[in-house]
Design brief:
Layout (H helix, E strand, L loop, with lengths): L4 H13 L4 E5 L11 H7 L2 E5 L3 H10 L5 E4 L2 E2 L4 E8 L1 H5 L12 E2 L12 H7 E9 L1 H7 L7 E4 L5 H5 L11 E5 L5 H13 L2 E6 L2 E6 H8 L6 H7 L5 E7 L15 H11 L5 E6 L1 H10 L5 E5 L5 H4 L3 H8 L2 H4 L9 H4 L3 H5 L2 H11 L6 E5 L10 H4 L7 H7 L3 E7 L5 E2 L2 E2 H7 L7 E11 H20 L6 H11 L4 E5 L7 H7 L2 H7 L12 E7 L3 H14 L1 H6 E7 L7 H11 L2 E4 L5 H13 L5 E6 L2 E3 L20 H12 L3 E3 L20 H7 L20 E7 L2 E6 L8 E4 H9 L8 H13 L5 E4 L4 E3 L14
Parallel strand pairs: 1-2, 1-8, 2-3, 4-7, 8-9, 12-13, 12-15, 13-14, 16-20, 21-22, 21-24, 22-23, 26-30
Antiparallel strand pairs: 5-6, 5-7, 9-11, 10-11, 15-19, 16-19, 17-18, 24-29, 25-31, 26-29, 27-28, 28-30
Helix pairs in contact: 18-22, 20-25, 22-23, 26-28, 29-32
C-alpha cells in the first residue's frame, strides 16, 4: 500500500527522468507557498509550465523561479478563450498579518465555490474582497501556445473550477504519471465525476486531505508488484475510499468441539475467501500463517493486513484473565444446557476475540491506511449466512457512507429476543438492570456494526466501560450482550436496524442495495433527553426589566435549559416605547420576539400552544415574566412545604421524566404563589355537577374566600429519576411553569378551544380529562420556581384573554 502516492511517484519520476521530466502547475500562486512539488522541483530540476491568473501572485511566481527551466502564463484556465471575472483578497492585510496567509491561496472564479463563499468569511470578503478581470484560455489553447506534447505531472488548484479544467484533458494524447486535483471545493456531483473520469481512463486514485491524487494503474502495479489481473479490482475500489471494512480470521479450534457447534477452519477460510472478493477497502487481522491467503485474493492497493496471533490476545485483551475466571465457574456454564458445549465455554480464545471486535475496529480508525471517514466491522465468516454477491456483485459497502450520513448514528443490527433466562450466558435479569429496562426484548448482533470514525471512537470508549463493569461484576455473555447494553443506554447515539426473529443479517444488506429507499423508510430515531427539542415561551407585559430577570434566572439556574431550548418572547406590551429595549434583550439572550397586541395572560398562553403545534419541537415550557427559576444560591433551602428549591440539571431531569412516563404535562413546583398542590384547586372551578359527582360529601363552595377544608389532591405513586422525586395523580393545571408534550398540548389546548380562555376554565377542563383517564400529569416534589414581581403595573391593565 503506497500511503503517500504523491511523494512516491514524484521521487520515481525525478530519479528516472531528472531534468527531462515536465510538470504543468495550474493555479501556481507564487510557485512555493502551499506547493508540495517545490522540493522535488529543486531536487531534480524539473522543466515546468506555471499558470497563475492573479497579477501580483504572477509577479512573485516569476521572481521566485527566476533562472529555472520554466515557462509562465498569466491567465486562468477555463472552458473558452477570452477574459473571466475572479475574486481575490487584497494582499495588504495579509502582508501585515491582519489576515491569515491562507487567504493568499483563495482567489477563485466568481462567484466563488471555495472558502470565500462561506458565511465565516463573509465579513472578510465584504471588506477586503476585490473583483478582477483576467485573461482566460482553454487547456488545449494553453498546450498549443507552449508546444506541450508530453506531461509527467499535472497539478490543478483552481478553487472549485478544477473539474472544468480536468475534463478537458485528453488522456489518450497526454497521460501524466501523476495528477493532483484540488477536490474539496467541488460539488458532490463534480467529485463523483472526477473519480469516474479517473476510473474510466485506467487511473487509480487516493483522496488525501483536500486533494485527490491519481496515477495510471500500470504504474501502480509496476511500483507495488501487483499482477495486471488486479486491474479491475483497482478500478472498483477507488470509487469509495471513504469506507474501510474491517475483518479478521483466526483458528480458535472450533473444529475440535462437540458436533452441535463444530465448524472446521477450512469452512471458515472458504467463506473468508468469498468476502475477500469485495472491491472495497479491507483492513484485515490474521495470523502470520494466513497472510499469504489474503494476498492470493487481494490487491495491496485496497488491502491492509495487520498480523496478530491468537496468543497475543492473552495480553492485548485487557480482560483475558477475568473472562477465563468466569468461563470456568460451574454456576456460569450451568445456566443453560447448551452453554456448557458452546464455543464461549469450551474455547479459551473465543470470548477474548469476539469481545475485542470493537477494539479492533477502533484500532483500524487509528491506522486508517485509506484515509477513510467510515469504518465497519464484519465477521470473516459472514458469508455462511449472507450471500457473497451482496459484497462482490452488488457492492453494498459502497452505500454505507450515504446510509450512515443520512440516518445518523453508530449502526447496530438487532433482532427480537424474548426467551430464556439468560442471553448468550448473561443472566437476563441482570442484563435488564444494566440496560435500565424492565425486560430486554432485543439483542444487537456482533457480525456487522460500525459508522463514522468519530462515532466509532466514542462508542469504543463506552463499550470498554460497559465491558469492564459487567465482567467485574461477574456477568458475561458475548460481545452482543455488551452491544445490547450500549443500544439501551445510548439510543441517541445508535442507529438500530431491526432484523427478523431469526436474527439473520442478510435483510439489512438486501435493503442496503437500494440505499435511498432504505433511508426514506428508516424508523424515526428514538427521542432521548439529549436529542429532544424544547421551546421556552416567556410572556411579558410592559417591563423589559421583568423579562430580563426571567432570562437571567434560566441562564443562571440551568445553562442546559437555556442553551438547548429555542427561546421565544410573546410580547403583550402596549407601550411601544419599550419595544427597542425588548429587541435589544432578545438579541442579548437569543430570543425570538413576537410582537402582538395585548393578548392577555391566557390569550398569550393559548397563542404559545398554537405556535408550538406548528413546530417540530417535542416539548415546551411557559413562563410569565414574574416566574423565575431559583439558582444555586438556594442550595439547601426549602419551600414552605419542606421541598427543596434549587434542582440542579432541572432540564435533563424533567425531560427524562416526560420520556419515561409519557406525561402530557409535568409541573415544576409543588408550592405556588397562590396555593399549594396538596389542595385540589379544580374543586373550586369545575361545574357543580362534576363537583357533586366527584366529591359527593363535600360539594358546597364557600360563600366567599378560600375554604380551609377544601379537598386534597389525590396522588398515586411517588417515583424517582436522577435523585429527583415526582408524584403522579390528579394534578391540577395552572399557568405556573410546566413542561408539556405534543400530545398533551393537543388535548389541553387545541382539541377544545374557548374564544376567551381563563385559567379556571382550563383547570376545570383538564381535571375532567384526567378523571376520564384522557390526560396524565406529574408533579415534581420540589419548588424550583418562585414568584418575583418587582415592576408593578396598574391592576386595571391586566387582561386575561
Amino acid at each position: 500500500m503506497l500511503v503517500n502516492i504523491y511523494d512516491h511517484v514524484l521521487q520515481k519520476i525525478g530519479r528516472e527522468k531528472g531534468s527531462d521530466a515536465f510538470l504543468v502547475n495550474i493555479g501556481a500562486m507564487d510557485g512555493v507557498m502551499f506547493d508540495e512539488s517545490w522540493k522535488w522541483m529543486e531536487q531534480h530540476s524539473f522543466k515546468a509550465l506555471y499558470v497563475e491568473p492573479i497579477p501580483y501572485q504572477f509577479e512573485k511566481l516569476k521572481k521566485n523561479l527566476e533562472g529555472r527551466n520554466a515557462l509562465f502564463e498569466n491567465c486562468a484556465i477555463s472552458t473558452y478563450d477570452g477574459t473571466i471575472q475572479m475574486i481575490t483578497i487584497d494582499p495588504a492585510p495579509i502582508n501585515s498579518v491582519e489576515l491569515h496567509e491562507c487567504f493568499y491561496g483563495l482567489s477563485a472564479v466568481y462567484p466563488p465555490k471555495n472558502g470565500l463563499s462561506s458565511s465565516e468569511n463573509a465579513v472578510i470578503v465584504e471588506k477586503y474582497g476585490r473583483l478582477v478581470v483576467v485573461p482566460c484560455m482553454t487547456l488545449e489553447t494553453l498546450f498549443t501556445k507552449h508546444n506541450i506534447e508530453h506531461i509527467d505531472v499535472l497539478s490543478i488548484d483552481a478553487e472549485g473550477h478544477d473539474w472544468k479544467i480536468l475534463k478537458q484533458l485528453d488522456l489518450k494524447k497526454y497521460r501524466p504519471q501523476l495528477i493532483r486535483v484540488e477536490y474539496e471545493s467541488l460539488t458532490e456531483k463534480e467529485k463523483e465525476e472526477v473519480l469516474q473520469f479517473f476510473s474510466n481512463n485506467g487511473y487509480m486514485f487516493h483522496i488525501v486531505g483536500q486533494d485527490v491524487d491519481a496515477i495510471p494503474i500500470s504504474l501502480y502495479e509496476e511500483m507495488s508488484g501487483i499482477p495486471s489481473t488486479t486491474t479491475s479490482i483497482t478500478n472498483n475500489v477507488s470509487m469509495n475510499s471513504n469506507v474501510t471494512i474491517v475483518t479478521g480470521l483466526w483458528d480458535l479450534g472450533r473444529g475440535n468441539i462437540s458436533n452441535t457447534f463444530k465448524r472446521s477452519y477450512d469452512h471458515y477460510k472458504e467463506k473468508f475467501i468469498e468476502l475477500l472478493k469485495t472491491p472495497s477497502n479491507l483492513f484485515i487481522y490474521v495470523s502470520k500463517e494466513d497472510e499469504a491467503l489474503v494476498w492470493q485474493h487481494r490487491s495491496r492497493h485496497n488491502t491492509f493486513v495487520k498480523v496478530m496471533e491468537v496468543e497475543e490476545f492473552k495480553t492485548w485483551f485487557a480482560h483475558y484473565d477475568k473472562v477465563q475466571e468466569i468461563r470456568n465457574k460451574p454456576e456460569w456454564s450451568s445456566q443453560a444446557g447448551w452453554l456448557k458445549e458452546s464455543p464461549q465455554a469450551t474455547l479459551e480464545y473465543y470470548n477474548p476475540i469476539v469481545m475485542s471486535k470493537m477494539f479492533l475496529l477502533n484500532n483500524a480508525t487509528i491506522f486508517n491506511p485509506f484515509d477513510s471517514t467510515h469504518f465497519y466491522w464484519i465477521d470473516g465468516g459472514i458469508t455462511s449466512t449472507v450471500h457473497p454477491g451482496y459484497f462482490s456483485h452488488d457492492g453494498v459497502f459502497e452505500n454505507l457512507e450515504k446510509y450512515s450520513n443520512e440516518v445518523e448514528g453508530f449502526v447496530f443490527l438487532s433482532y427480537p429476543y424474548e426467551g430464556n433466562s439468560e442471553v448468550h450466558g448473561f443472566e437476563r435479569r441482570k442484563l435488564a438492570q444494566y440496560c435500565r429496562t424492565d425486560f430486554v426484548r432485543y439483542v444487537c448482533r456482533g457480525g456487522f456494526f460500525g459508522g463514522k470514525r468519530e462515532d466509532v471512537n466514542d462508542i469504543n470508549g463506552k463499550y470498554y466501560a460497559a465491558l469492564t463493569s459487567t465482567l467485574s461484576d461477574g456477568y458475561m455473555g458475548t460481545e452482543e450482550s455488551v452491544f445490547t447494553i450500549l443500544a439501551h443506554n445510548h439510543p441517541e447515539l445508535i442507529n438500530r436496524f431491526v432484523l427478523k426473529g431469526d436474527g439473520l443479517i442478510w435483510p439489512f444488506f438486501e435493503k442496503l442495495k437500494d440505499v435511498d429507499n432504505l433511508i426514506t423508510t428508516a424508523a424515526p430515531r428514538e427521542v432521548t433527553y439529549q436529542t429532544a427539542k424544547n421551546i421556552i415561551y416567556v410572556l411579558s407585559f410592559n417591563s423589559p426589566e421583568q423579562f430580563e430577570s426571567v432570562c437571567k434566572s434560566i441562564q443562571t439556574s440551568d445553562s442546559t435549559m437555556y442553551e438547548k431550548s429555542r427561546k421565544i418572547l410573546i410580547n403583550n406590551s402596549t407601550n411601544e416605547e419599550m419595544f427597542t429595549k425588548y429587541d435589544e434583550l432578545c438579541t442579548k439572550y437569543n430570543f425570538e420576539e413576537i410582537h402582538r397586541e395585548n393578548l392577555g395572560v391566557c390569550g398569550g398562553r393559548q397563542f404559545a400552544a398554537e405556535h408550538f403545534a406548528e413546530t417540530d419541537a417535542h416539548f415546551y415550557m411557559f413562563f410569565e415574566d414574574d416566574m423565575h427559576l431559583v439558582d444555586e444560591s438556594k442550595v439547601g433551602s426549602v419551600c414552605r412545604n419542606g421541598f427543596r428549591q434549587y434542582v440542579p440539571n432541572l432540564y435533563d431531569k424533567v425531560v427524562k421524566i416526560m420520556l419515561k412516563e409519557k406525561f402530557d404535562f409535568l409541573k415544576f413546583s409543588f408550592s405556588e404563589f397562590y396555593g399549594d398542590n396538596s389542595i385540589q384547586w379544580a374543586w373550586y372551578n369545575v361545574p357543580q355537577s362534576i363537583r357533586t359527582e366527584n366529591w359527593p360529601n363535600y360539594d358546597k363552595l364557600p360563600e366567599y374566600g378560600i375554604d380551609p377544608n377544601a379537598p386534597k389532591t389525590q396522588f398515586n405513586n411517588i417515583k424517582f429519576i436522577d435523585e429527583i422525586p415526582y408524584i403522579t395523580g390528579e394534578i391540577y393545571y395552572s399557568n405556573w411553569p410546566q413542561i408539556v408534550s405534543r400530545d398533551g398540548n393537543k388535548k389541553m389546548f387545541l382539541d377544545t378551544k374557548w374564544s376567551r380562555p381563563y385559567e379556571q376554565t382550563w383547570m376545570s377542563h383538564m381535571y375532567q380529562l384526567a378523571k376520564r383517564n384522557e390526560l396524565t400529569a406529574g408533579l415534581l416534589l420540589a419548588s424550583p420556581v418562585i414568584h418575583d414581581r418587582f415592576d408593578f403595573y396598574d391592576g386595571s391593565e391586566r387582561k386575561e384573554s
